[in-house]
Design goal:
Strand content: under 5%
Low-confidence stretches: none
Radius of gyration: 15 Å
Number of strands: 2
Length: 146
Amino acid sequence: MKYDDASWHYGGNFPEDLPDEAGATHIAMFVAWALLAGLGGELHEGMTGPLKTRSVTPGAFFLEACDGQFTDEDLSADGNAFAAVYYQTAADKPATQIDYFADYQDCLMDKVASVYHIADSWQNFDRLKPLLDRRWQDWRASRQAN
């Protein structure tokens, strides 16, 4: 199953002043967080070194390692269960349900022209990570309570 694809974003109303890679940043931040949190699938075993050392940005890693596509193969079973609830956005999703894209915008979209202008940087990753960690912990706690 494909959760997201950078090519879905850099067509249509995508800002003309940005490279296509900017359509991957929001996806890359989530994938990088998931891999660093130990939620990666077998596909990425032994591949997270550049993320751990921060020798590449989340976006550069994602575009190289995932070819700009975020699929269920990128995550473990727990990672997919969480992404199905948090990353996926559906028209029938209750407004009160947690939503990655809304969190991403709320956390990082200050002083930029559009969501695609958010820089692919470790500084932005570090701003987003505590929120993702909290969403993950809250989700895990809710699963254990049920």
